């Protein structure tokens, strides 16, 4: 959005704020194909006349004289909070941002001029008598009766290589060397298929992770991570601001 509007990169926070606002007005599979706005307020948002980020606006200036300008031109960079009646305005001359309510969006129109056709329509010449054209019969092309053979997919069960077995048992890491230096073409396909299946079978919740055979290793890594972050003073406990959402976090368990 910043490149499209031609605004400086230091306005990245305003651009992200407007992008997050737009995302909350769209449907998401996480909430059952409904909008976050609709789930929160119980009604669908009104998106008619949605402004473009960075477009020009007229801002009312009540301090002007009778003969002076009563509006100044600036750039619109988003809404203020959840209200669509308060706007963030970027002033390029002072390089500042302020919140304004009385604004008017500048409609940008493109003039398209259509030149009339200078050539005059001339009367069509009389049609010449048409000569009979001998009918040509296209040559017949013999049709093929045999159907093209369809590619056959192998129905045999994939054979796990020793490398895949070591990864599944947690015995192989990136610093070790596998016993097999090269894999055949079929084994490469089986290797990729097995890795995809193992990623899809990763536990998605803490209860499933605790029931997994790798839970002792995960628990040891979690305790070490928490201890390191605590010693480094990564966070501090502060009161929750009013009318603000808290972004949560979760552990991701993956078989490597």
What does this structure look like?
This protein is an alpha+beta fold and 256 residues long. The protein has 7 helices and 5 strands. Helices cover 27% and strands 12% of the residues. Strands 4-3-2-1-5 form a 5-stranded antiparallel sheet. Strand 2 (71-80) and strand 3 form a beta hairpin.
Main sheet characteristics: 5 strands, antiparallel
Count of DSSP-assigned helices:
7
Residues in β-strands, percent: 5-15%
Q: Shape from CA axes?
A: flat
Number of separate strands: 5
The pLDDT mean sits at 75
**Main sheet strand line-up:** 4-3-2-1-5
* Cα-based radius of gyration, to the nearest Å: 34 Å
How far the N terminus sits from the C terminus, by CA atoms, comes to 38 Å
Q: What are the low-pLDDT stretches, counting only 5+ consecutive residues below 50? A: 176-185
Query: What is the N-to-C order of secondary-structure elements (H for helix, E for strand)?
Result: HHHEEEEEHHHH
Helix % is 25-40%
Which structural class best describes the helix and strand composition? alpha+beta
Helices, strands, pairings?
Layout: H1 2-5, H2 12-23, H3 36-41, E1 56-60, E2 71-80, E3 83-91, E4 96-100, E5 103-105, H4 162-168, H5 185-200, H6 206-210, H7 215-232
Antiparallel strand pairs: 1-2, 1-5, 2-3, 3-4
Q: Which features would summarize this protein structure in a list?
A:
alpha+beta; 256 residues; single chain
Quick summary:
The model is unreliable at 176-185 (pLDDT under 50). The protein has a 5-stranded antiparallel β-sheet.
């Amino acid at each position: 959005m910043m490149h499209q509007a031609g605004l400086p990169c230091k306005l990245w926070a305003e651009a992200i704020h407007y992008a997050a606002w737009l995302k909350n007005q769209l449907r998401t599979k996480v909430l059952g194909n409904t909008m976050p706005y609709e789930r929160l307020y119980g009604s669908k948002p009104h998106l008619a006349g949605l402004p473009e980020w960075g477009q020009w606006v007229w801002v009312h200036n009540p301090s002007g004289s009778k003969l002076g300008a009563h509006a100044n031109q600036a750039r619109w960079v988003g809404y203020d909070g959840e209200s669509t009646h308060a706007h963030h305005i970027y002033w390029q001359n002072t390089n500042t941002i302020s919140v304004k309510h009385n604004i008017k969006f500048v409609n940008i129109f493109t003039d398209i001029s259509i030149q009339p056709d200078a050539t005059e329509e001339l009367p069509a010449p009389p049609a010449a008598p048409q000569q009979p054209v001998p009918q040509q019969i296209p040559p017949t092309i013999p049709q093929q009766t045999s159907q093209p053979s369809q590619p056959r997919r192998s129905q045999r069960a994939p054979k796990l290589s020793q490398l895949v077995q070591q990864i599944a048992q947690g015995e192989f890491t990136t610093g070790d060397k596998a016993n097999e230096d090269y894999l055949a073409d079929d084994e490469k396909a089986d290797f990729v298929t097995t890795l995809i299946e193992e990623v899809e079978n990763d536990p998605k919740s803490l209860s499933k992770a605790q029931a997994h055979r790798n839970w002792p290793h995960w628990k040891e890594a979690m305790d070490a991570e928490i201890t390191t972050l605590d010693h480094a003073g990564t966070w501090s406990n502060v009161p929750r601001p009013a009318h603000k959402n808290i972004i949560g976090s979760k552990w991701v368990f993956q078989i490597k």
